[in-house]
Structure formats: C-alpha cells, structure tokens
What does this fold into?
Amino acid sequence: METLVSTWSRTAQILPENYVFPIDERPGSVEVPICQNIPLIDLAEGQSQSQTIDTILAACEEFGFFQVINHGVSEDLIDDTMKVVKDFYDMPDEEKAKVYSIDPSKSCQLYTSSYTYADEKVHFWRDNLRHPCHPLDECIHLWPEKPTNYRNVVGKYSLEVRKLSLIMLELIREGLGLKPGYFGEELTGSQSLSVNHYPRCPNPSLTLGLPKHADPNVITVLLQGSVSGLQVFKNGRWLGVEPLPHAFVVNIGHQLQIISNGKLRSAEHRAVTNSREARTTIVSFINPSPDTIVEPAKSMISDGVPLYRSFKFKDFLKFYEAKKGDTEALMEAYKIKP
Ligand code: OGA
Ligand code: NI
It folds into this structure.
C-alpha cells in the first residue's frame, strides 16, 4: 500500500511541498466566519409542511446548502457510524492495506487525496474511503470486513440516510412543483458513501482537505461531526458551516441545478484542515443511474428555452472529472447558448 497521509503525517512537523496549494487557492491564516444564515430545517412533527418546503427552497436558491435536525435518523446510529469509520482509520496499516485501492473501477476504494493522485501537482490533505451502497444487498459484501461491525452499522446508516435524502428530494419536488414520482429510481438509483479523514495538519494555512468544488450528483447528505472545516463559497467569500451535533448538512448537486433549470444552486464548497484534531466526515451522494438522461424539467422552463441541454449522467461525470473543479467551465459546456 502506498502510505496514507493519516499514517505518515503522525510524525510530520512540516507540510511537504507537494501539499502546498498555489497562493490564490490557499486558505491562508484569516479566520473564516461561521455563517449564521445557512438555514436550519427542523423536521420535528408539528412543523408546518408548507413552511418547511418554503424554507428549504429559499435555502437551495440562496445558499445551495442547509442543515437538518430532528431528521429521524437515530443519534445512536449516527454516533455508532462515526465511531466505526474512525475505528476504520485507526486500524493498523496491514488491515487498511487490504482495502487500499486507487482503481476507480473497483467498487471499494481507499486512497489519499483523489484517485488521480499520480497526476496531481498538489495533493489534498485527506484520506478517502468510498463505496457504493444501493441496493444494499448487492454491494455490502464489497465493503471493508474490518472493523467487524463496519458492514452492519454502515449498512443501517446508508439505508437511513437514503430515506432522509428521498424525504428531502420529495420536499424539494413539491417546492419546485414537479410531478409526483419525479425523483424515482432513474434519478436516485445510485448511492455512494464517501468517508473523508483529514488528519491533523502541520500547516493548515497552506493546504486544503478538499479544494473548491461543487458536487456532481443530485443531492448530498453530509455528517460533519463535531469539528469544523466545511466552507461554502458565496458572493466571492468563504463562509464556515457550523458543526451542529447530530445535524446533517444537505447540499444541492449539479443534477438538481440542471433539473431545476438553474433555480436551485449547486454551490461551491471546500474543506479546510486544522492543527488541533483530526476531522472525519461521512458523505452520502445520491446519483442518477449511469445511463439516465438528465435535463431541465419541462415545467421549470418558463419561456420555452431551457438553460441546459440534456445528457447522459455517466457522460456528465466523465466531463466533471476532466474539468477538475472548474465549475464555471463545466456548467458553461452544458448551457444552451442563445
Ligand atoms: C465532499 C465534501 C466536505 C467535508 O466530500 O464532496 O464536500 O467537509 N466534503 O468533508
Ligand atoms: Ni463536496
């Protein structure tokens, strides 16, 4: 196994040169303020459904991000899942070596930075474990065998988070006025889990855990844990997303921006590191099935001209990966020119 950053950085006193980002991408040492305005959605019973939908829609238009509490996923399950993924990274190297793979065609991958590590000029300060999770019975056997409760706990978590993602999509569907069943198996048929581990970093001002990007999927449900690090780019400024215990951070992916014909924002974001403690995040991505044709919903096109052309999801993904975080160039390529 090539060494994971979480392994070799335990004794690192200085940040290696190949983790130093270009000056205009570095976070620097300026404190980024925690944004108090990113909406908090309370799904507890007794809330007015139409008000919840209005708040979600406004959040998706303005920030592309919101947080959810009282979401129905049990706190014990959240704690158990966070523990088991941390236990995964704490295992001895020999165990992680069994999972280590940078090959994107493999179902379960574990690597440092990204799977294009070998071609990168600068690496991201993170390790990443990633695998599909839907349908669960078709992929659970591909997951890490250790820790011994990984499959059991993460399996339950994946199902619960999928349920929550579909509830979110249903509220968004109603808010956009799309027909019932719009977000069916075609648009949500694929789900993957990505566990980011950002070790303590000797110089957080020079590097990033994840550089500026927007997510290429439909909707993302992220568990940030108790350590801050997620930042959203808005009006040319970075805003911190507050870590709230047991809350999920939800954000809009490129597919929802396109389906909504540009009404909802797929916002750019990044993850910064810190020198005090490691940070672990659990990210669930809902994706269309690879061959699904994605396009702006007919009812979202007010003047007869859609903003984006239609495409096959798998082709979009390929192009997304080639563009390497250049969101503007990516989305321009899918825009219909007047
Ligand atoms: C991602 C992502 C942010 C975080 O995995 O796409 O944006 O805080 N993660 O880990
Ligand atoms: Ni992201």
